[in-house]
Design a protein that fits this description.
With 389 residues, the chain is an alpha/beta fold. 31% of the residues lie in helices and 24% in strands. A hairpin with a 2-residue loop joins strand 15 and strand 16. The chain binds S-adenosylmethionine.
Amino acid sequence: MSTSPTVVKRSPKQQPLRLHCPTGVGLEQVLAAELRRCGATSVVPGNRGVSFSGDLSTVYRANLWCRTAHRVLMEIATFPAGGREALYEGAKRVQWEDYISLSQTLAVDAVAGNSGLDHTQFISRVVKDAIVDRFREKRGRRPDVDPRNPTVRINAHIVSDLCTLSIDTSGERLHRRGYRPDFGTPAPLKETLAAGILLLSGYDGTQPLIDPMCGSGTLLVEAALIARNIAPGLLGRRFAFMGHLSFDRPLWLAHIDEAREQISPDAGEAISGADVDETAVRAASAAVQGAGVDDLVRLRRADAADLAGREGGILVANPPYGERLGELDKLAKTYTALGDALKRRCRGMTAHLLVGSKFLAGKIGLHPKSREVLWNGGIECRLLHYDLY
Ligand SMILES: C[S@@+](CC[C@H](N)C(=O)[O-])C[C@H]1O[C@@H](n2cnc3c(N)ncnc32)[C@H](O)[C@@H]1O
């Protein structure tokens, strides 16, 4: 027997839109504050994401401005989906003709947990079948599927037997700002995580900033973007919403113009980075140039043990974690040397270190005043905050 689930339908013309941005563990509050600045209302931080309301302007602003969002999802339907039939019927009731045309392509991603349906490939296939069957019945033809580069990517999220269908307005994940060429440097931070570390550390562009272990320079570039008030979405990437039926080009261009006007022309406080490895310094230099902030960021090859701080400044770093056996002992010396430099030459500063090993964190020899759990890829880390007297 086929069930008749209640479908809460939404269309882009209906206001307000219900929206959701996934982010990393620990960054929910920072992202919520960013979204409020984008005009979002009813902002509710959750676990690894923030739900909020808004209109198309909010969607464009969130994609353009949010430094810590992974993507911006526009929720279009919510319904109970305890089994295949309920999922298929619920997905088929959505007025997909409002969102996809026959000449466009689609793909369905799925996330599931704590539900009768938990096989994500199966969920994707059922939702995709429902969409194309509806088109066949209503229009006699169906849009094609393109799993890699679809015009419209749909996200099916099932938790506790409740399915939410969303349209992904971002496309490629937002951490891909487009400024970082691949130099093969080890363990670069995702741009969204780097921005989150800076915002959690209280960096607002008015303080001098140092990263003495800068690797490919992600923290430095994200700091320069904050200091200049450059929206990360201005760096030239494409967004999925540009290909959507609801795309309002004049509105988007108005947001681009507004963002350009808000760029601060001031040089701002100095941002400096160093790394012991010459290849890392070259990679950082390319990233800084790619983002157009090379006039603000100074780079040099140096050992963190020799760093020189600046009164009132902020030091951020993501020292190596030492995942392989035998590396920990060598790195213990590096962490101790960094701790000594912080104690001796960085008085009057604050330091913020993302560390992935409790053992190594102990080798710094300073007591953090606070800490947060953040995940870097698959590694559970701590962001340790120090006041240096
Ligand atoms: C985990 S990576 C930093 C990644 C960086 N945050 C990024 O986004 O690309 C750690 C960096 O510390 C550097 N490093 C290790 N020991 C160092 C030392 N004694 N002085 C300066 N840099 C060091 C490594 O060369 C490496 O580039």
